């Protein structure tokens, strides 16, 4: 799940146009929604239903929505880096003015394809943003045990513009992403954005005994001090842009929307068996 990391998907996608591309990860539901997907169709895909974005054949880790520029999530660590870079090459070649964004976790920093793509993107000045969501843990291992050196310096070594931002601050993420997206659209080449963040839940649904790799104190501290939604709500109230009543109304409306999406997905039919060989090859 993406709980705790919402400010990154929202901040980045708010800086993009509908026709801009994104590629995602196995933790991709937040990206999918932030880029404009229908919760009903996303939930249907999660449950393998025919009404889903991929007619139930993609499931949780492979949701794609071309209508909103979402080229798909990917279960392979770093697996979508080449797809985003290729999409950026397409945009440059066709002169469409589009930008491609590749979301990936810090675990992908160990994948060679990332650096192959860095090299080509910088050589060809492609309009692509590489957004690293560092939630501190490669599954069950702290990133400091697997990742040597300074992370932004890896991109900077290729001459790529590299920035770091507080991934829990949606305003900071948006400001950085908007600047880098405009830069890419002008033809100034790729960028790398490191977003420091944290996942509140386990790596997967069965990861419930997390104390063997991270402490309860650490989790509680992040929840209390760094929650992106709570902190943004506090800022809105401090700036008198919203009050407690209006924020409560938004929460209630969202709960209704998500409940309806869940009911829609549960009631939707599964694909019939005669569809098993459909949409396999173009």
What would you say this structure looks like, in words?
The protein is an alpha/beta fold and 282 residues long. It has a single domain, classed as Rossmann fold (3-Layer(aba) Sandwich), CATH 3.40.50.970. The protein has ten helices and seven strands. The strands form two sheets. It has a five-stranded parallel beta sheet with strand order 1-2-3-7-6, sandwiched between helices. A two-stranded antiparallel sheet has the order 4-5. Helix 5 links the parallel strand 2 and strand 3.
Q: What is this structure's SSE topology?
A:
Layout: H1 6-14, E1 21-23, H2 29-34, H3 39-46, H4 81-94, E2 100-105, H5 112-123, E3 128-134, E4 137-138, E5 141-142, H6 151-156, E6 161-166, H7 170-185, E7 191-196, H8 216-225, H9 228-238, H10 244-267
Parallel strand pairs: 1-2, 2-3, 3-7, 6-7
Antiparallel strand pairs: 4-5
